Amino acid sequence: MLGVRVYGEIEYYFGMFKFGSLVLLFILSIVANVGGFGGDYIGFRYWKKPTGPIIHGIDGFGQVFVLAAAYYVGTEIISLAGGESRNPKRDIPRAINSIVYRILVVYVGMPFFQGLICPSDSPDLLNASSKTASSPFTIGFVAAGWKSAGHLVNALILVAFVSAANGVVYVQSRTIYSLALTKRAPKVFAKTTSRGVPYVAILTSNLWGFLCLMNRKLSAGQVFSYMTSVGGTAAYISWASITLTHLWLRAAAQKQEVSINTFPYKAWGSIWIYRANFVFYVFLLLVQGYTVFKDPFDWKNFIACYITIPTFVILFVGYKLYFKTRWIPLNKVDFSDRREWVAAVSEAKSDCRSWKRRIWDLFKD
């Protein structure tokens, strides 16, 4: 409720803490792996049968994509921050480039080190019948000889949870607020404080926290499974929509003979990469819940896996019909302000210094 300046400052330090925590956990994982806590040398023992990768065949492989999507979702929220950035034409390309390194460190590094020290068949991991479960790091550290490791990991997870909740409420409230401004959501969500904070959208976003009360009737494992299924399928729809928009923009630029080199940011690689991405997202969206069709039919998980698709179609088609909007033809997409983009980016680049020069300037002054 204090505004984006306070949120950004808090999230900055949260982000530094989380990154530092991950590096610490990676180092401790290496120590645990080599027997530094008094246990045996592990090496790559857990990467072989019966606990190795893809041990459940195509079923397990397909289900992993749903969980992965639920974790990866959020990397696209930098577009929201662009609306409240002082210089989005400079800041957004920088932020996009940083995502690559974040994926390598967080989304690739974390499962790699967890897989080194924690067996996939540990009974302490979360499953459908779990009431509580331990982090793979906790399981690995305890098995390696550090019996009180759970206290450290719990502290790190608690701070990460507060940061995640903070970020989720920010993203959701700004999304609803933006939709309300363009008549895609009820106008009540466009109400703000005198300082421009969308308080109605923020309070509404917090109400989703009451879904945790599902734990009163269902196990924590079931609730977690439902949440990740809904979130994962929503992620695929979101990414497919983003990729389709990108393809539409590139096609419009080609149609109007506008060079993509005049854009402030140019997506890496061939256009065929993004065409393949779009097909891949749609494919995963349709097949990610195919295990529910096995005998007996699991109707609860079917709803969790596929409820997002009809919801998206109803909202999208309903909006198009109600407001009678039309697709913008390729030859009418507006590129008139790209010269301003180029000028702003050129100015920003002229002030950029390499990291070596920044360090040198710091000590030089």
TrEMBL record:
Its main location: membrane. It is found in: Membrane. Residues 1-326 form the Amino acid permease/ SLC12A domain. It comes from the Eukaryota. It is a multi-pass membrane protein. InterPro entries: AA-permease/SLC12A_dom, APC_YAT. GO terms for molecular function: amino acid transmembrane transporter activity. Keywords: Membrane, Transmembrane, Transmembrane helix. This is Amino acid permease/ SLC12A domain-containing protein. It comes from Knufia peltigerae. The lineage of its organism: Eukaryota, Fungi, Dikarya, Ascomycota, Pezizomycotina.
